[in-house]
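Please check our next protein.
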Amino acid sequence: MKIVIVGAGYVGLVSGICFSDFGHEIICVEKDLQKLAMLKKGEIPIYEPGLDVLLAKNIEAGRIHFTDDLKAAMDGAAAVFIAVGTPSRRGDGHADLTYVFQTAEEIAEAMQPNVVVVIKSTVPVGTNRKVAQIIKKCRPNIEFYSASNPEFLREGSAIEDFMRPDRVVIGVQSEHAEKILRQIYRPLNIRETPIIATDLETAEIIKYAANAFLATKISFINEIADLCEQVGGDVQQVAKGIGIDKRIGGKFLHAGPGYGGSCFPKDTLALARTGKEVGAVQSIVEAVIVSNKARKIAMADKIITACGGDVKGKKIAILGVTFKPNTDDMRDAPSLDIIPRLQSAGAIVTLCDPQGHSEARELFSNVTWENNPYDAATQAKAVVIITEWNEFRGLDLNHLNEIMSDPIFVDLRNVYSFEEMQKANFDYHPIGKRQK
């Protein structure tokens, strides 16, 4: 089946490459000429493990192509997916749908009859119907079908999530649209992947509700971690104790410096905004947003406290700046709040991240970048793990102690244990555990 993907950002590119690996003919439409040139050469403009290999395989097989010519791409297409960005709008936090609506107009001009127009981007409730209205206004006599197909991809695990999803959600209002989408995802039948068919609005809500719930779990365990530190509990044991309960589940119960990334921050804001607009206030989600913002600031204060309350003129080595490992994504990363606050307190900051340098270089000023954690830690008063890259999970702690000016280790991801840190004579500060 021929499928057009408009937007070769994270969602569009992963979806397009994976669809091509299903055997479909994929045309990705991208306006950014620099990005387009890279993709045509088989180069990936983002970091996602394994995506470059999968792209090369399907380019060689002739199943995926890249262009900036939407009209030519649409010739003979059964479906077109809108996968453009929907960033948080400045001022009110709502999703900015400028690119979605602009794309809808362009699709209307280029489309042929009976195409299924699928929104893959994360959009507020009612957006699919607004897009349909835009297309009808531009082409009042053309027959087409609207559909919603929200994505549930985790950065760093996107290929696995696409190829082996927990479920596929499709929002439709016609049998034809449902039939086409089921054909597109037919390769997943062998794994008996559930395909949940709903109306348009329900599909849109499912996406926001899923991300808001996961964000809530993160903020909940972070607040429990604070309680553990005060009363002597161990948040990892608490998480295990409640996560074994099948009604709760153990995922997203890892205490840390707060959530970030491309989804949770903007989706919680958009859901809260939608709730206010329609008179269904999402008070829990609003509390999660406040809690997460406070969490990031509190982590900077934790580091300063671990250093005796004063970091002025002191070197602080930060290991990991991306919002999570196995990605170069810096969007709403905790480091963006933590590092400037340390600098405001007078700290001299050195950074090390396996993939974050290119994205983060323009986001931090007056910092030093090092290629390995030991160079970053040399003569540092404290080492701080913000992002738990594998490279930071097996550090030579004895060597690390020798090269630092003070043996202070702040572990915002609980990578290490008190026992191994005590063996290496570190003053160890984890999350959700009282210092021993």
Summary: The CA atoms of residues 322 and 344 lie 21 Å apart.
